[in-house]
Amino acid sequence: MVVIVGAIIVLGAVLTGFSMAGGSVGSLIHLSEFVTIGGASLGALIVMSPKKVLKDLFRGLLQTVKGSPYGKPTCLELFGLLYAIARLVRQEGLLALDAIVTRPEESMLFKQYPRIYTNHHARDFVCDALALIIDGTVETEQLTQWLDEEVRVIEREHHAAVTAMTKVADALPGFGIVAAVLGIVVTMQAIGGPVDEIGYKVGAALVGTFLGILMAYGFFAPLAGRMEALGDEEMLFLRSVAVAVTAINDGASPKDVITRARRVIGTDCRPTQSELKQLFG
Asked: Which residue of 31, 88, 193, 229 is surrounded by the most CB atoms within 10 Å?
C-alpha cells in the first residue's frame, strides 16, 4: 500500500506541475512511446536474467506492494516458536525435533504460529536449520558456518533480482532516447507538412525521453531500493533464526535463546522486554 501511495504521489506531482505550466495531460499519452520503451525494457530484462531471477523479481515486486512478511507480528510469532522449540528440546531432547523437521506441515507446533506456518520460505529455513542439530554431534563453530553460508546464498539470490531491476532502471533513459529518435525520424518524413502536424510529432518524440527518465527515477529505481530494503529485513529475520538454533545446540535456556535471537532483529521489529514478558511470563 505504501508503494502505491508513493507512486501516486510521484505521478500526481508530475502531472499537476505540467498542468499548472499550461500543458495538457492528453499530450503526454502516446501509445507508440509506451510500446517502444516498455517492450525494449522487458526484452532487455529477459535477455539478461535467468529464469529464477525473473521469478524472484516477480515475487519481489508483489512483495513491495503487499508489504514485508517479516514485520513485528511475525517476529513475535518467531520468538514464540523458538521458545517452544527450546523448551521441547530441554524436556525431551534433540530427537524430539525429528517429527517437526520432517513433517512441518503436520506439526501442531507450527500451526500455533500461522505467520510462520504459511510462510514456506521461513518455515523451511527453520526446519533446515533444526535438521542440522538433531543428531547432537555438530560443533557450534561448524553450525555457525553452515547457517551463515545458507543465509549468504539466499542473500545472493535476492540481490540478483534487485540488480536486474536496477539495470532496467539505468537503461530506461536510454530507451527513452531511442523512442525520441524514432519520433524525430517520423517527424523528418513529414517535414514539408503543416506546422501543427510537425509540432505534434516533435512533442510525441520528446514524450519518449520524458517517459524514460520518469519511469527510471520515479518508479523503477525506487522499487529496486524498496526490494533491497525488504531483502535486508528478511536477512535479519533468517540470521535471528540461525542464532537461536545455534543457542539451542549449545544447550541454552529458552529465555537465553530468545535473548540472543532478539539482538539480531532490527529495532523496528524487535519486541520490548514487556512484550517478551507477556509472551513467556
From this structure: 88
Q: Are 30 and 201 in contact (CB under 8 A)?
A: no
pTM score, whole prediction: 0.86
> For residues 97 and 130, is the Cβ–Cβ distance under 8 A?
yes
The closest alpha carbon to 82, from 257, 267, 274, belongs to: 257
Q: C-alpha grid cell for residue 102?
A: 520432517
Digitized pLDDT (tens) for each residue of the chain, 281 residues in all: 677 888 888 888 887 887 887 877 877 888 888 899 999 999 999 999 999 999 999 999 888 888 888 888 999 999 999 999 999 988 888 888 888 888 888 888 899 999 999 998 899 999 999 999 988 788 889 999 999 999 999 999 999 999 999 999 999 999 999 988 888 888 888 777 787 778 778 888 888 899 999 999 999 999 999 999 999 999 999 999 999 999 999 888 988 999 899 989 888 888 888 877 777 76
Q: Where are the domains of the chain?
A: 30-281
Using the 8-state DSSP alphabet, how is residue 219 labeled? I
Side-chain half-sphere of 98: how many Cα atoms within 13 Å? 7
How many CB atoms within 10 Å of residue 185?
Answer: 11
Residue 97 contacts by C-beta under 8 Å, 6 or more apart in sequence? Answer: 85, 88, 89, 130, 131, 133, 134
Which helix or strand (DSSP H or E) is residue 260 part of?
A: helix 254-264
